[in-house]
Automatic annotation (TrEMBL), chain A:
PROSITE patterns: COX2, COX2_CUA, COX2_TM, PROKAR_LIPOPROTEIN. The chain crosses the membrane at residues 48-72, 93-111. Residues 24-121 form the Cytochrome oxidase subunit II transmembrane region profile domain. It catalyses: 4 Fe(II)-[cytochrome c] + O2 + 8 H(+)(in) = 4 Fe(III)-[cytochrome c] + 2 H2O + 4 H(+)(out). One of its GO terms (cellular component) is plasma membrane. Its EC number is 7.1.1.9. Keywords: Copper, Electron transport, Membrane, Metal-binding, Oxidoreductase, Respiratory chain, Translocase, Transmembrane, Transmembrane helix, Transport. GO terms for biological process: ATP synthesis coupled electron transport. The lineage of its organism: Bacteria, Pseudomonadati, Planctomycetota, Planctomycetia, Planctomycetales. This is Cytochrome c oxidase subunit 2.
Automatic annotation (TrEMBL), chain B:
Keywords: Electron transport, Heme, Iron, Membrane, Metal-binding, Oxidoreductase, Respiratory chain, Transmembrane, Transmembrane helix, Transport. InterPro entries: Cyt_c_oxase-like_su1_dom, Cyt_c_oxase-like_su1_sf, Cyt_C_Oxase_1, Cyt_c_Oxase_su1_BS. It is a multi-pass membrane protein. The chain crosses the membrane at residues 38-63, 102-125, 137-157, 186-207, 219-239, 287-306, 318-339, 351-369, 390-412, 424-448, 460-481, 509-530. GO terms for cellular component: membrane. The keyword Transmembrane helix applies. Its EC number is 1.9.3.1. This is Alternative cytochrome c oxidase subunit 1. Residues 1-17 have a biased composition (Polar residues). It comes from Gimesia algae.
Length: 278, 604
């Protein structure tokens, strides 16, 4: 009688383990190519994830197996009475200390990674000195402001700044930093391929750095509920080699300095384009 | 051997225990009753009703995710005639907001504190009623203004649009979204009313447990159920005022322009907000200072109840009573310093994030200890697989999953990826549905004979359990995979984004499982109403359990006990040699424990 129930409770953890084991092969794990993060930091995050997965998988299989075995024993107990015990100090010490040690290890192990990710004094210096762009989230789009070619991003918008909507170009292979802000409500800058997520808070400017290591077109989505159109804050991050990125900026400069009359002003650098604007 | 039997023979009849007047007419007996048992039953039926509402909302959410922008069968054309039967994105936002609100504030919290807390506290500690019966009645009746406010917010003003977390600025400025107007104000009022209701309850429970324990009922002889409810009441009392204060501040922002929660210089819907000077992060701190402890408010009572039920069903004392009590207290006190783990991506200082990470890792430990102790309680027991047992095991099995997925999110760098994706949704459904609701089902089946004097039907109960268990895992387990693939939560249409396009079939599978699970609940309702009237009559102690409530008649009369309960030892004395029985009630004086007794517990 109890046997059927033991099998019932055995079936579901087995199904869980099997589906998790199959997940990477049927595209149920991290998104994009081979589930590989497109940033070095992302790869470190994935490693931490797999480490925790290994530990939790062992604990899951262990606890569920012991649970089902305990059920089995208990169901088939032919004794007149159950065992009379109020506990066992030694056992309880063991199962407090071991998980405690594992948890402590995990806590310490990830500190470096977190520091590299978010501590301002760990940010790559070059990226901090010359931020790539300012990203402004608003209902329901992403706006990007680059400094003019050869200039640095200023906190306040400059006349020769370059603007785009829902398309961010990023050079690959070097750390970049963006200044994240919001015009209206809270949003969240989520780049699944790079394992980057940071809320955009109205009233604050938050620096976020990342380094893409694979060229490609990646989705940028909003991860914090920002109103009825939350699901359609759809943008792309285009990671490309440095030359293509520079060419893109140049092209953008030309488009935006186009005065609508005759031929597009072909300017070599930012200062001339400023002149053309006047 | 002198055994103090629960039967009144040889005991003084009680005359002094009638602290308040007995039942009068129908109204004072069943509607405005001050009897904790009637109030508990009122809470039970109200929360079960709300469970239907919350479940229907969940199914509507799931419908949209499986068949985006398609008219819902039957109700679709009737509800959204204007949109041609479609669920609009505004309506979708309202759906998940209200689903979460109803499930948390009107189902889980009141069914635990209101139903089980009310019913069991006086009976299990041997009191004749709560310390403040009228306050108790009021705490039930404050549910109704809350329900009315929530109802107003989703029917008459477009529906609140900011999720159950009510993050500003979206929730704080009326022009931020179609649902941020009056609906949000009503929503906040509703939360305040349920807050008052819980507050009155928690004061009452604390006072009752501290002051009204029967003679001999020391703290370390309290059943685990009472420990769970007691610690929960303390958590409520400390955490709730913070949320209430925050709620008032948000209402003030909305109605009087105080700007606690929004900064200057916002441009919303192309209109500049004229004032400012606040900070949205402040709300998150206030909110999670309550709502993190709240997840334990939704779990600790069940942990207690399951401890007692498992021990009874296994015919074994609880493994490690004191460690169980201490781990519960540890969870509760650590619960106050981990709220920041909801805010790792929020923009708060990352160094603070590290501190929250360590405290969150710490809190996993007492949870792990409890899991091992429950498993050890089953080990070597003599288990009967009835509905109560099955639901308890489901609790345990699913709590393990929810606990383990918590470790991923405690690891800050990993949480950055999982935050606000379906991985989180999977995690808290394993805890709230998987653990808490299965515990509730077990509790209903277990204490039903005490409440109504009749047994529930086992066949119906088991069928309900099997279908719910399959449905729950089918619905919630794949959510982990959705989260892995980066699907954010609260998306009316995730398939718009290239990297999520292929997730439709998985979502459809989950919706079918959810429908199965929803349909299974019909069996629960049939079982409850059928058994209330036609179930086999139950005696005082149908489960051969040991705690005090089983010494009272089923159902207990007004004033509870027909004798003065005296307590002689701890709560879970099973597997003892006691005449021809294997258990010793807390009211029974003597036992001969078997020679091979191994004990670390001094309360025997
Ligand atoms: C029939 C069972 C249930 C189903 C099918 C279900 C389904 C869902 C779905 C699909 C969401 C996601 C909404 C989104 O973020 O896009 C959700 C959110 C949520 N559910 Fe459930 N749920 C069920 C039961 C419960 C229960 C029993 C609770 C108990 C407290 C609960 C609490 C929540 C909470 C807190 C949220 C978060 C809502 C938010 O995003 O703010 N659910 N549920
Ligand atoms: Cu959004
Ligand atoms: Cu939490």
């Amino acid at each position: 009688m109890g046997k059927g129930w033991c099998l019932f409770f055995l079936f579901w953890p087995v199904a869980a383990v099997v589906s998790c084991a199959a997940a990477p092969f049927i595209g149920w794990s991290f998104p994009y190519d081979n589930a590989q993060a497109a940033s070095n930091l992302g790869i470190r995050i994935d490693h931490l994830f797999y480490l925790i997965l290994a530990i939790t998988a062992a604990v899951f299989i262990g606890t569920q197996a012991v649970l089902v075995y305990a059920l089995w024993r208990s169901a088939n107990n032919r004794d007149e009475r159950a065992q009379h015990t109020h506990g066992n100090h030694k056992l309880e010490l063991i199962w407090s200390i071991i998980p405690g040690a594992i948890l402590l290890f995990l806590a310490l192990y990830q500190m470096n990674l977190w520091a590299d990710f978010r501590f301002k004094n760990h940010y790559p210096e070059a990226a901090v000195k010359d931020p790539l762009a300012e990203v402004t989230a608003r209902q329901f789009e992403w706006r990007f402001r680059y400094p003019a070619i050869g200039k640095q991003l200023q906190p306040k918008p400059q006349p020769d700044d370059l603007y785009t909507v829902n398309e961010l170009h990023v050079p690959f292979g070097k750390p970049v930093l963006i200044q994240l802000r919001s015009d209206d409500v809270q949003h969240s800058f989520f780049l699944p391929a790079l394992r980057i997520k940071q809320d955009a808070l109205p009233g604050l400017q938050i620096p976020v750095w990342f380094e893409a290591n694979k060229p490609g077109v990646y989705d940028l989505v909003c991860a914090e509920l920002c109103g009825w159109g939350h699901y359609k804050m759809k943008a792309h991050v285009i990671v490309e080699p440095e030359e293509e990125y520079q060419a893109y900026l140049k092209n953008l400069t030309q488009q935006q300095s186009y005065d609508g009359l005759g031929q597009i002003a072909a300017n070599e650098n930012g200062s001339e384009s400023e002149a053309a604007e006047k | 051997m002198s055994v103090l039997n629960p039967s009144p023979t040889g005991l003084q009849p009680i005359t002094t225990h009638q602290s308040h007047e007995g039942p009068g007419n129908f109204i004072t007996k069943y509607i405005f009753s001050t009897d904790h048992k009637i109030i508990a039953i009122q809470f039970l039926f109200t929360t079960l009703l709300m469970m239907i509402v919350g479940g229907a909302l969940a199914l509507a959410v799931r419908w949209q995710l499986a068949f985006p922008w398609e008219s819902m069968p039957i109700v679709g054309p009737w509800l959204f005639a204007a949109e041609g039967g479609q669920i609009s994105p505004e309506f979708y936002t309202m759906l998940f907001t209200m689903h979460a609100t109803v499930m948390i504030f009107l189902v889980i919290i009141p069914i635990l504190a209101g139903t089980f807390g009310n019913y069991l506290i006086p009976l299990m500690i041997g009191a004749d009623d709560m310390a403040f019966p009228k306050l108790n009645m009021l705490s039930y009746w404050f549910m109704w203004p809350a329900i009315a406010c929530f109802g107003m917010s989703f029917k008459y003003a477009g529906g609140p649009a900011a999720g159950w977390t009510s993050y500003p600025v979206l929730a704080d400025l009326a022009q931020a979204a179609p649902g941020s107007g009056t609906a949000q104000t009503f929503w906040l009022l509703g939360v305040t009313f349920v807050g008052f209701s819980s507050m009155m309850g928690s004061i009452n429970y604390m006072t009752t447990i501290i002051n009204m324990r029967a003679p001999g009922m020391t703290f370390f002889r309290l059943p685990m159920t009472i420990w769970g409810l007691f610690i929960t009441a303390i958590l409520q009392a400390f955490a709730l005022p913070v949320l209430t204060a925050g709620g008032f501040m948000q209402v003030a922002d909305r109605l009087f322009g105080t700007c606690f929660f929004y900064p200057s210089g916002l441009v919303i819907n192309n209109a500049a907000a004229t004032v400012g000077g606040g900070q949205p992060l402040l709300w998150q701190h206030l909110f999670w200072f309550y709502s993190h402890p709240a997840v334990y408010i939704m779990l600790l009572p069940i942990m207690g109840m399951v401890s007692d039920m498992l021990s009874c069903m296994c015919r074994k004392p609880l493994f490690g009573y004191k460690p169980m009590v201490f781990s519960m207290s540890a969870i509760a006190s650590l619960g106050f310093i981990v709220w920041g783990h909801h805010m790792f991506t929020s923009g708060m200082n990352p160094a603070v994030g590290m501190a929250f990470m360590v405290s969150t890792m710490m809190i996993a430990l007492p949870s792990a200890i409890k899991t091992f102790n429950w498993t050890a309680t089953i080990w070597g027991g003599k288990l009967e697989f009835n509905t109560v047992t099955l639901n308890c095991i489901a609790f345990l099995s699913m709590f393990i999953v929810g606990g383990l997925s918590g470790i991923f999110m405690a690891a800050v760098p990993v949480d950055v990826y999982f935050h606000d994706t379906y991985f989180i949704v999977a995690h808290f459904h394993y805890i709230l549905f998987g653990a808490t609701l299965f515990g509730v089902f077990a509790g209903i089946q277990f204490w039903f004979p005490k409440m109504f004097g009749r047994m529930m039907n086992e066949k119906l109960g088991k069928t309900h359990f099997v279908l719910t268990f399959i449905g729950a895992n089918g619905t919630f387990f794949p959510m982990h995979f959705l989260g892995m693939q980066g699907m954010p939560r609260r998306y009316a249409d995730p398939y718009l984004h290239g990297y999520l396009e292929h997730l439709l079939p998985m979502n459809q599978f989950m919706t079918l499982s959810a429908i199965l699970m929803g349909a299974a609940q019909i069996l629960l309702f049939i079982n409850i109403f059928y058994s209330m009237f036609f179930g086999p009559k139950a005696g005082r102690n149908p489960w051969n359990a040991t705690t005090l409530e089983w010494a009272a008649p089923s159902p207990p009369p007004h004033g509870n006990f027909d004798f003065v309960p005296m307590v002689y030892h701890g709560p879970n004395e099973y597997a003892v040699v006691n005449g021809d029985k294997d258990f010793l009630m807390q009211t029974e004086q003597e036992c001969q424990p078997p020679r091979n007794i191994t004990t670390s517990d001094t309360s025997v």
